[in-house]
Structures are given as structure tokens and as C-alpha cells.
Amino acid sequence: MFEAWQDVLRRIDEEVVSIQRPRGSVTLLAVSKTFPADAVRTLYNHGQRAFGENYVQEFADKRAQLVDLADLEWHFIGPLQSNKTRSIAEGADWVHTIDRLKIAERLSAQRPDARGELQVCIQVNVSGEASKSGVAPADTIALADALVKLPRLKLRGLMCIPEPTEDRARLAAQFAELRSLQQALKARGHALDTLSMGMSADLETAIREGSTMVRVGSAIFGRRDAKH
Ligand SMILES: *Cc1c(COP(=O)(O)O)cnc(C)c1O
Known about the structure:
Layout: H1 2-18, E1 27-31, H2 37-46, E2 50-53, H3 56-65, E3 73-76, H4 86-91, E4 94-98, H5 101-110, E5 118-123, H6 140-147, E6 153-159, H7 168-187, E7 194-196, H8 203-208, E8 213-216, H9 218-221
Parallel strand pairs: 1-2, 1-8, 2-3, 3-4, 4-5, 5-6, 6-7
């Protein structure tokens, strides 16, 4: 796992250098879903700080086992149902998957004062697949405008999961759409610094299109079982 993690860090660094972006401008989010708390602890001890989880219960269990790691940063990157927001509002540092105002309102209302602002990204459905979560690109600005009025959330940027395809040009176009939406939001005065895009198989393409945070699971931790 250590070697695989080092390989991913190297892939990120090589891509960043090859397109002449500043070194360190892309954060690695280690997606630990389905892997045990011990795996997270091991990687933490090597220096990894940001970890991503997809399932509310699994997140709550793992967080409880790792509370002693004070500066570990938890990112929730899974689908959110409105009846399950509380443990996320209390335990997460970031949420990448906001796609409707109702969820954002609940997270803001349930965020404990002592935890400070919850850092959030809006998930955009850039592929237009009916099965995908995410707000439609055309509705992103309205959601952002409403979201920034909520007191305990801080809008940091946008996130996408493009369609699974081997077609690099198609993938790149979907990443580019997220980036152009981010630019439109910036032009409206939203101070955004995050584009959460790119996974094990496509992180280079995502970085080339402007990603600032790649979410990488299997390339670090190994294959997950089929149900995930
Ligand atoms: C599982 C998951 C990842 C990591 O995917 P890999 O292909 O294993 O790197 C990234 N983002 C989201 C939203 C995920 O659910």
C-alpha cells in the first residue's frame, strides 16, 4: 500500500510538472471506502491526511476508530440522503456531493458551532446520465447562489464523476465543462479554489483539465469487492 500510494503521488507530480502547474497544486484524497480503519491509520502514519468515504455508516464507524488522529481530514464523497445528514454534519470536514439545496440546508443547520464551517463542493452531473447524481450544469449557478447564504457551509468548488468511458476526448470534455462552470461562478464573485475531479484511471486527464483534488481509491488500496 505504501508503494502504491507513492506511485500515485508520483503520477500526480509528474503530470503537474509536465503541464507546468505549480508543484503541490493538486491534493490527493485517498478514498478508503470498504477498507478497514487500520489501512487509513497506516497511510496516515506515512503522512497522508485527506481521506474520502462514501457510505454514512462506514464513515461513522471508521471515524470513531480513528478519533485519536486529530488532524486527519475526512471528506464525504458519497450520495447523501436527507435523513442521514447528521453524522456527516458532525463528523466530516468536507462534503463533495451537494446536489440540492435541501441537503445543504440540513447540513448547515446540523453543523455544530464548535466544528467551524463545513467545506463543501457542488456535485455536477456533467455526463447528463439519468442515473447519476449531481445538479444539472444549467442549475449550478442558482444552487451556488443559494448555498453561499447558508451560515455554516463554505462553498469551495465543484465536483464531478464523468461517465465511465475509455474515450479520452469525451472524458476531457466533461472535466472541461466542470472547469468552465467554475469559471462562470468565479465571474459571479464566488471565491472557489477547488475542482474535485479525477480518480485512479483518469487522474492525469483530470489534472490536465484543471483538477485541484483527485479522489483515488483502488490505485492506492487495491481492488474493492464487486458490490462497490
Ligand atoms: C470510489 C470513488 C472514487 C475512487 O475511485 P477509484 O477508481 O477506486 O480510484 C472516487 N470518487 C468517488 C465519488 C468514488 O465513489
